[in-house]
Design a protein that fits this description.
Elements (H helix, E strand, L loop, with lengths): L4 H10 L2 H33 L4 H4 L1 H21 L9 H35 L1
């Protein structure tokens, strides 16, 4: 969760081998599935309810998936002692959260559009 590379290094340095291995597996398994799930959901809402603009409205959702998976890769590389690219967390983590909140806002608007369309169809 931290975007501070030095703090991430400190946290990793305090872990023993078993903790680093467990954290790496959780990152690979769960932290890979999670962005795919929420990115698909948020992007799907944009695609479904924004009509011809849906593909543009879904770009932040796609972007957050790519950035989140990149951040996961950086973390696994550090946890496995393969490479230290933790400096990238200084911009990857804030970018991830910014794209997530943008995509979530677009999805909220998409839901409002969907509800309005539902009431219009029932009233017609």
């Amino acid at each position: 969760m931290t975007s501070d590379p030095e703090m991430a290094r400190t946290i990793i340095a305090t872990m023993n081998d078993a903790q680093r291995t467990a954290h790496a597996w959780v990152t690979v398994l769960l932290d890979t599935a999670y962005p795919l799930a929420y990115g698909g959901f948020l992007g799907g809402l944009a695609l479904r309810f924004f009509g011809s603009f849906g593909k543009y409205a879904a770009v932040p959702a796609l972007g957050v998936v790519v950035v989140d998976l990149t951040e996961n890769l950086v973390q696994v590389l550090a946890l496995a002692n393969w490479a230290d690219a933790l400096d990238a967390k200084a911009w990857l983590t804030p970018l991830k959260f910014g794209l997530f909140f943008l995509a979530a806002g677009i999805a909220a608007i998409a839901l409002v559009i969907g509800v309005i369309n539902l009431f219009r169809k029932r009233g017609a």
